Amino acid sequence: MPSRYLSFRCSLPWLILLLQALFLIHSFFSFSGGLYSPSSFYPEFQDVNHMVIFGFGFFLMVLRRYGFSSTAFNFLLIVLGVQCCVLVEDLLLLSFLSCSLAKAVVSMTAVVISAGAVLGKANPVQLIVMTLVELILFYVSRCINKTLLQVPEHLTLMHVHLFGAYFGLAVSSRFPEPPPGLDKNRSTPKSDLFSMLGTVFVWVLWPSFNSVLADSKEEAVLNTYLALAVSAVAAFMLSALTSKDGKFRMTHIHSAVLAGGVTVSYTAHSIQHPWIAMILGLLGSGITILGSHCLQRCFNPALKLQDTSGVHFTFGLPAVLGAVAAVVLCVVEKGIAKQWNNLSSLGYLILVDVGAFCQTISTALVTGLITGLILNIKLLKTVHVSKYFDDQFYWEVSF
């Protein structure tokens, strides 16, 4: 291996050991155990835990020669990241945000989504560094929304889709593009099947994700399930309509069936009429499939975006749609209830809601670009660009 690259064997084990020692020392001097209670609803916490570890682990198995790394690195990032979440909240943000294990696991969704954008390109050292940096920045963004814009705490956590998608896209734009002749960044029927397995697992458990921290859990579960169901039906319909030969495309199904859950993540707990959630699920599925066509063919090459697993149109665009829907529904609700008396109060309401979403996206993009530059310094590089999307550099495998 060229000398300008960091030795993988001499870097990763010691980095993990250092971090685990830090987390262990923190736990020794930390607060009482009650602070780390997952929640009073342990089954819901377990659903979210399974969804993030198992569901997203297989969801990211889209590359034909990167299956071991997709699932195992996802698991490694989560178990390290959850401990980092607890440490960050204890040391930095305890006066602003309450700490719990459930919130730490939900926060890790942002990292998992971002990892999908750099899938196959970032080595484990870079992924761990990205995880630590992104979690700190995400909590800073949450603090800004909560303290300055008065966004409820559980809604600041629902920004994981926005922050994760656009942070990951910004980071991926700083990585070198793979050689034109490299064909390892494609899928096979086997990898698509495993990825679809993860998608189904995430789909089944998504109502728990949207309701685990919500006050109105019954409404959140009902609205999330209906939105997911409609988005899944719409995914099959739109896939057949948009393909040249009228056949279903696994890429469409893999992405669009989850759009409903992302779209209603901000409003699942507050929607009073189920048909609203169903419409949002339909619109989310539509924007995902149409966005995949436009982004991959037009915008990604022009903006030099390298979105390996399509997190932009799977999570980013539906999250933007959900953010806009949340503002519209909030204004309509306040207007019907006559809780605002003049246009100035209405304008302030819109400004605060829009400001929270814009702050999240802008923070993710700016800090993601900086993080991408940091990850590509010589100190953190362990693999040449020609070895992208390949398990053989990290695992003992035979193809």
From TrEMBL:
Entry membrane topology: Multi-pass membrane protein
Keyword vocabulary terms for this entry: Membrane, Transmembrane, Transmembrane helix
GO biological-process terms attached to the record: ammonium homeostasis
Signal sequence, renumbered to the chain: none
Record field: transmembrane: 12-36, 48-66, 73-94, 127-148, 193-214, 220-241, 275-295, 315-336, 348-377
Gene3D superfamilies reported in the protein's UniProt record: Ammonium transporter AmtB like domains (1.10.3430.10)
InterPro entries per the UniProt record, alphabetical: Ammonium/urea_transptr (IPR029020), NH4_transpt_AmtB-like_dom (IPR024041), RhesusRHD (IPR002229)
Pfam families: Ammonium_transp
GTP-binding recorded as keyword: no
SUPFAM superfamilies linked: Ammonium transporter
Family: Belongs to the ammonium transporter (TC 2.A.49) family. Rh subfamily.
Protein name, as recorded: RHL protein
Gene behind the chain: Rhl
